[in-house]
Specification:
By secondary structure, the protein is an alpha+beta fold. The protein contains four helices and 33 strands. The strands form five sheets. It has a 17-stranded mixed sheet that branches. α2 runs antiparallel to α3, α2 packs parallel to α4 and α3 packs antiparallel against α4. The chain is globular. The chain starts with a helix and ends with a strand.
Length: 478
Amino acid sequence: MAIKKAARPRAEFDWYLISIDRLKQIGLIILLLALGLAGWWFFTNQKRNPRSAAEAAIADAREALNALASSKDFTNHRSEFDRAQKKLDDATPALTSGKYPSAQEQAVESQTISRAAISGGGADNDAQFLTVEGDVSFQKSATSEWKRADVRSPLFNGDWVKTGESASAELIFSNGSLYTIGPNALLEIYAQFNPATSKKSNSVQMQIGSVEVATTDDVSTVRTPGSQVVVDSDSTTQVGVDRQKQTAVIATKGSASVTAPNGGTAVKLATGQKVNATAQGSLSQVRNLVMPPALLTPADNQVYPMSSESRVDFAWEPVPGATSYQLQVSRSRLFTSLEINSKRQKSTASAKVTAEGAFYWRVAAIGPEGEAGPFSTFRRLRVSGAPQQAGSINTEVPPPTLQIKKPYSIGGPFYMVEGVTDPGATVFINDEEVDVESNGHFKKLVSFNKVGRNSVVVKAVNAAGKQTIQSETVLVEE
C-alpha cells in the first residue's frame, strides 16, 4: 500500500506538467489566430473599404494639386493644373453621392496628372492623332476652344474630336486600338481608370458620324445614344450614328457585343453581321450581310504609265447572293475623298488614267435588299509619269530618293516610323510593305517587344527595280 501511495503523487505531477506545456502551445496558437483575424478584419474593413480608399485617394490628389500650384514652373503647367482640378472636382460629388469607385478613379487620375507635371513630364495620354486628313479639330475638356488637330496631338479623357466634310482621322489609344473616324463626326474620348487592375479601359462616346475600331490584344468600347458596343480583342467593328441618333453596328472581323445603354442581354455579332439600335436603346434582329468579294486585278502595287491611252481594268470575284457591287477609288487610303464611287451590276469596271500618283481601290457587295456589306481590304495602284511602255523596265532610272525621320515613341512599345520617297515608289519597313501617299510621304506604326536596341530597316523600290535602303536604331526602355 505504501508503494502505491508514493507512486500516485508522481503520476499526478507528471500529468500536470504535460498539460501546462500543451496549454501554452494552444494559447500561443489562439493568440496568433486572433492577431491574424484582427489584421484580416482591419484590412477588409478599412484598407478595402471603398469609401476609405476613395477618401484617401482624394486627399492624395488634393496634396498633389497643391504641390503643383506652389511649384516654380506652375505657369508652364497651367493646362495640367486645370485638368487635375477638374478631375478632383468630379471626385468630390461622386464621393458624396456614394459612388466610391468613380470617386477613386477621378482622384487617382487627378493625382497622376499633377505628379507628372511636377516631375517635369506630362501625364500619359489616353489617345493621340495618328493620321489627319482634311478639317479635323479637337477641344480640351477644360476649355471651349476648338484647335486644329495635328499628328501626335495628345488626347485625354473628356476631350472632344470632330471632323468636317470630306475629312477623316485615325486615333491610336494607349492599348494599341486604332479608331478610324469618318467625315462629319463628333465624339468624346472616354477613358476610365480601373484602380483594381491599374489599367485604363479606352473608349469613345459617339454623338454622330462613323468610326471603325480595330483592336489588338485588348477590348475597346464605343458608346452611342442607343447602344454600347464592346469590340473583342483582335477584331474590327464599324459603328455609325445618324442624325436621328440611330446606331448601326457591323462586325467586319472577329466579334463584338452590343447592349442597350441601361444594360440587358448582349447581342453577339460575328464577322459579317449587323444590328441596329434606336435612340431609345431598342436593338433589332441580327442580320447577315453579304461578304466582300476577293479582288482580282489589278494586282496590288501594279504600276501604270501615264499616257492618254492607259486604262485600268478592275475585276473581282462574283459573290453568291450579291445583286450589284460598289467600286470606290481614292487617293487616300482612308477614302476621305473619292475619285470613283460607282455602282456596278457586273464584277468588272474600267477607268481611264488621268493623273499620276498612288490610288487605292476597294469593292463592297450589295445584297438582295439593297444593303451594302463591308468593303474589301483595299489594294493600291500607281501611275508613273515616266515615259515607258507597259511591262518594260528603264534600267537608266536612278534609285529612288529616301528620307526618314528619327522614329518617335507614341507610348508603350509603339513607335512611329515616317519618311518621304519618290511618288510611285514602293516602301518596305522591316520587310513589311507600307502605304505611300501620292506625294511620296509614308508612315507606319511599329511595335517593339524587345527591350534594348532595335533596328528599323526602310527600303524604297521604284518601278525599275532600283532600291534605296536606310536604317535607324530605336532604344526601347523597360
